[in-house]
Write a structure and sequence with these properties.
heterodimer, A: about 250 residues, alpha/beta, 6-stranded mixed β-sheet, 5-stranded antiparallel β-sheet, 9 helices, globular, B: about 230 residues, mainly alpha, about 80% helix
Chain lengths: ~250, ~230
């Protein structure tokens, strides 16, 4: 079954049609990378999928349940959004960790106070996840004492602690120093090997190539081309894709 | 108030007033200032939050009312507001007022005045918190209430401490405005003593200044400590 299904999504900001018509299905265990130039609509697409922006048209569903659809030419949202939100997680470009919470509390608080899960159990899971991400010694630290790479790994742990069916990444390494991107990409790669369903908006082409099952190139609010990474990066027949990728291969 | 009871005594007595007696009386009257100060903080700090919510309300008439209220509170002298709160209920509405109305009126006037300023400080604090904090909370499934109380409020508190400290210090000094409706707080008494024959004179006012200064020094110290306590996060 599709974890995520977006059909004919549209989104405009005033007169600016950021997403013209994009459809995207993501299967369980699939890793999809979205690439494209700035302003192409790829981040907006992610924000629509994670309900941070309302869609202007189309249908959005998770696990077969509709979150948003069109009725009489108007978009309506499900009454069940609270449940639907539990199915996905989002890792932000700027981490958006809660600065007044320790690393452990950042990870634990939502499972405990939103999912109402048992604190002890959550704590054990949180510590195990931190350990796995090489952050075991940072549990009691506050975010402002962490490096960018550590912050991003904590925010990945925070998202994973909610046990989402699918995890979205919005340019997870764009706010990091080049030396720090590696440690974050390694963690995402590890998740890919564990068959975590993921959609990653990224500018890291070699990473997208290495980690994805499918790469989608978006430009001008459309999907220009999509396919297996070796096809898209290796030998694209599309002139626009080729032109875009040239900037990265220099 | 107990202090006002022995003021006439002082004025009628022809004998000289010693500096220690003067200081003692100022200390006692400073208790009244502190009373105004404490009640104002206790009332205005939370009321400011409610005013902020009113300003952000979806109900347009409530918003207009709150904006008008803030505008009047900030745009007219506190001394005038004291006079209005004290006299209006009787003169305009012909209410019978309790015997301690003078003191109640002072506290009401101070609370509604300071709440307006606090509301604006809170607003600035809340609006300075990055939108990403709300988005992270939303994606994690926090309710609106949880987002506000767990995520936004603690960060706001840290950010507003410096401007709130300013207001608190101003409040300490503003208690002296109560003399506009003859509340016998420290400054009112100090002026009275300074003007009476046989008193230590101008030194009384100087002493009053020292009282304010020392107390405000304390306020600043305590607020700095609170700020330090919150230094563990950015």
């Amino acid at each position: 079954m599709n974890i995520l299904n977006m059909e004919h999504i549209q989104k405009s900001f005033a007169d600016n049609h950021v997403i013209k018509d994009i459809s995207l299905k993501v299967d369980q265990g699939e890793v999809v990378s979205i690439i494209g130039p700035s302003g192409s609509g790829k981040s907006t697409l992610l924000r629509c999928a994670t309900l941070l922006e309302t869609i202007g048209g189309g249908t959005l569903s998770y696990l077969g349940e509709k979150a948003a659809w069109e009725e009489n030419g108007k978009v309506v949202y499900s009454k069940n959004l609270k449940e639907i939100r539990r199915r996905f997680g989002l890792v932000f470009q700027n981490f958006n960790l809660f600065p007044h919470y320790s690393v452990l509390k950042n990870v634990m608080d939502a499972p405990v106070s939103v999912l109402k899960r048992d604190r002890k159990e959550v704590r054990e899971e949180a510590l195990a996840l931190l350990e796995k991400m090489g952050l075991a010694d940072k549990a009691d630290t506050y975010p402002d004492q962490l490096s960018g790479g550590q912050k991003q790994r904590v925010s990945i742990v925070r998202a994973l602690a909610m046990k989402p069916e699918i995890l979205f990444f919005d340019e997870p390494t764009s706010a990091l120093d080049p030396e720090l991107t590696g440690e974050v990409l390694k963690v995402i790669k590890q998740l890919a090997e564990e068959k975590m369903t993921m959609v990653i908006v990224t500018h890291e082409m070699s990473f997208a190539r290495a980690v994805s099952d499918r790469v989608i190139f978006i430009d001008g609010g459309h999907i220009v081309e999509q396919g297996r990474p070796e096809d898209l990066f290796g030998d694209t027949q599309n002139e626009r894709t080729r032109q875009f990728l040239q900037n990265y291969n220099r | 108030m107990t202090v006002s009871a022995f003021v006439p005594l002082l004025l009628s007595a022809a004998k000289k007033m010693s500096i220690p007696t003067m200081l003692l009386q100022l200390t006692e009257a400073f208790g009244v200032s502190l009373l105004i100060f404490s009640f104002t903080l206790l009332g205005a700090l939370p009321l400011g939050m409610i005013v902020y919510f009113g300003k952000k309300s979806r109900i347009a008439p409530l918003r207009w009312f709150v904006n008008g209220y803030i505008s009047v509170m900030r745009g007219t002298p506190l001394m005038l507001q004291l006079i209005v709160v004290y006299f209006a209920p009787n003169l305009v509405f012909h209410l019978t007022l309790p015997s301690n109305w003078r003191m109640i009126a002072v506290v009401i006037a101070f609370i509604i005045n300071y709440a307006a300023y606090f509301a604006e400080i809170y607003r600035a604090g809340i609006e300075s918190i990055p939108v990403g904090q709300y988005e992270a909370a939303q994606v994690l499934g926090y309710s609106k209430g949880q987002t506000f109380f767990k995520i936004i409020l603690p960060q706001m508190v840290k950010r507003v401490i410096p401007p709130v400290t300013n207001e608190i210090i101003t409040l300490v000094k503003d208690t002296s405005l109560s003399s506009a409706i003859a509340v016998m707080e420290m400054f009112t008494l100090a002026k009275k003593i300074a003007n009476s024959p046989g008193s230590p004179g101008m030194i009384t006012l100087f002493a009053a200044g020292v009282f304010y200064y020392v107390f405000n020094y304390l306020v600043a110290f305590v607020m700095r400590r609170i700020e330090k306590r919150l230094d563990y996060f950015e």
